[in-house]
Amino acid sequence: MVISEMDAAQVAAYFRGKNILITGATGFLGKVLLEKILRIQPDVTRLFLLVRATDDESARQRVQTEVTGREIFQVLREKHGKGFEDFIEEKVCPLAGDVMYEDFGLDTAKLKEVSKVVDIIVNGAATTNFYERYDVSFDTNVLGAKQICALANKCTKLKMLLHVSTATYVVNKRD
Q1: Helices 28-40 & 84-91, crossing angle to 10 degrees?
Q2: Looking at the 3D structure of the chain, how many domains does it have?
Q3: Where does the Thioester reductase (TE) domain lie (predicted)?
């Protein structure tokens, strides 16, 4: 399916004024999604990024190092110049947590804040390490999706829950 310019404009317009929770933002697709949203719809209200970290400051550092500090954000960096960091700080809210835990391990105040404002949840959190222990893969890829759904039920303004998977399996049959 090819998305026409009209459809792309409608998608961009849909994000205007929305609060979006993204899991897996430090992964390949998460970085691309975050950059694209910030570039084509700078009027998004807030992007909450769930990041595995011990506290919000560690989460902020991880986002800065592994996400917004990467080359993919160069166009935005050039567009905003010296105001790039302020723009990111205004739009991006790193959350220390993990999809494996109930309520992502967020404290009560943070959970209440997020669940009151989130319009869209994009779940891109997963382990794609094919050599990972099965229990670790199961906790992240299966129980994580369950926790996403549980949190989604608490979000009073939720309009969309999108689950994304980066793992694609292809079978090549040779005769």
Answers
A1: 100
A2: 1
A3: 22-172
Distance set, CA 173 to CA 140, 169, 170 (Å): 31, 13, 10
Query: Backbone phi, then psi, for 19, in 5-degree steps?
Result: -105, 125
Is 2 inside any structural domain? no
Task: Specify whether the CB–CB gap between 11 and 39 falls below 8 A.
Answer: no
Distance CA 76, CA 136 (A): 35
Q: What is the CATH number of the domain that holds 20?
A: 3.40.50.720
Return d(Cα 100, Cα 115) in angstroms, integer.
18
**Per-residue DSSP letter, 99:** T
In a domain, 168, yes or no: no
- Model pLDDT for residues 86-113, shown as the tens digit of each residue: 999 999 999 999 988 899 999 999 999 9
Question: Which whole number is the average pLDDT over 73-96?
Answer: 96
Closest by alpha carbon to 86, among 97, 77, 74?
77
Exposure on the CB side of residue 50, measured as CA atoms within 13 A: 29
Question: Residues 114-125: pLDDT tens digits?
Answer: 999 999 999 987
Sequence-distant (6+) residues with CB within 8 A of 171 are: none
Please state the pTM of the whole predicted model: 0.86
Burial of 123 (C-beta count, 10 Å sphere; 0-12/13-18/19+) = buried
